[in-house]
Amino acid sequence: MSTATTVYDQYRNPLTSRYASKEMSFNFSETKKFSTWRKLWTFLAKAEKELGLPITDEQIEEMEANWETIDFEQAAREERETRHDVMAHIRTFATKCPSAAPIIHLGATSCYVGDNTDLIVLRDGFDILLPKLARCIQRLAKFAGEQKDQPTLGFTHLQPAQLTTVGKRACLWLQELLMDERAISRARDDLCFRGVKGTTGTQASFLQLFEGDGEKVKKLDDLVTKMAGFKKAYPVCGQTYTRKVDVECLNTLASLGATVHKICTDLRLLANMKEIEEPFESNQIGSSAMPYKRNPMRSERCCALARHVMALPSNALNTAATQWMERTLDDSANRRISLGESFLASDGMLQTLQNVLEGLVVYPKVIERHMAQELPFMATENFIMAVVKAGGNRQDCHEEIRRLSHEAGAKVKQEGKENDLVERIKASSYFAPIHSQIDSLLNPATFIGRAPQQVKEFLENDVDPVLKKYEGNLEGSATLVI
After folding, report:
1. Which residues are catalytically annotated?
2. Per-residue DSSP letter, 325
3. pLDDT, tens digit, for every residue of 331-357?
4. With 80 as the cut, is the pLDDT of residue 277 above it?
5. Which helix (H) or strand (E) holds 160?
6. How far apart are CA 399 and CA 393, in angstroms?
7. pTM over 0.85
8. Cα 15-18-22 angle, rounded to 5 deg
9. What is the DSSP string of 290-310?
10. What is the pLDDT of residue 291?
11. Number of Cβ within a 10 Å radius of residue 451
12. Residue 156 belongs to what H/E stretch?
């Protein structure tokens, strides 16, 4: 057996190899992480220089020139020796910046780079997800508008119920996606910077650096916060920013996962009924054993990823609950996995959902056949009212329809035949006064209430204002990574 190793000889996270986009994978990459550390060390040095510490322009320029020149092999060697990732990268950075070496990380604790980078990555992750969510909303809104007048069976308890329209049902999905956009936007905008707080959040080391000048320490915190692109820093923290922040972030994504799971479960049920199908490519194979199958694999993938996203907040909750005093380090390994996977899975989920929504196929004839099987039972009240208007007695009519309905129901359930209630009513002399009205009384369009108007009003009043925020970011079709 060959001793040579390739990427195929070790575990690869399927989120990066199969599902998530390149931009989201990069957002959680080591290159992004450690280049951000170097930027943060530079921001700190620049702010300290501005406030009077003896740091030169040459030192800062040297640091700025080496943000991307990361020697990962050296960093790995240093970490094996020190068992400390931040010290390993300080040494690696210092090798590239010998004149700046004495002032790199001056006054800071490891969480200055670790936690502040996490907050930057969370913010940037939300900025990647939100336009993708908006594109899903836009595609689904287009579908809802096109299908606003198409009557279809409604279902409660997964049993046939009063008619709705295909577009109105899509608006139920849309409403939840709008709630997710609002929650994710709020979580993104609520993110603050950890800032420059020191080892236990007291800023003692910086107060010493500035010889007791508290105003300079406050200014330092503010300067670095602004350089990192944040409006404000958390006013208090321990060694870390509160892990409740992670809870809020992962909860919003889990809620999005619940929405996507609901949408795609509905689509899978509708595919079983052959009323609506997700896109199916010409060379796509549904089953290795059953060539005729058109499995809803995209919707199934969305549900699978959503299930993982929905499971991850428990990690964040347990971490937040067990941060002893100013912090413990038992969160580190967990957060390396749970934060990234939540965003990567959400990214793959939204890309796949967009692909589904861009290619939905509706089969009106199948929908009509299903309505025809149930509509006669739903129309019985209409028949009664018509008979009464023609001079009949409501109680007598109710009994006549009850008898015929049970006879028709028995044919459907016991003999597997079509619902022939309408034919029975047309053949009954009792209903002769309304025979000419029966077809109009069965018109599906008269059973959908204000559904088309509701769709139009919802799209105009609720969906369009949200999409306006993303103008310029709504173009582009979504393709599956694999």
Report:
1. 157, 287
2. T
3. 888 999 999 999 999 999 999 999 999
4. yes
5. strand 159-165
6. 10
7. yes
8. 75
9. -TT----HHHHHHHHHHHHHH
10. 47
11. 24
12. strand 151-156
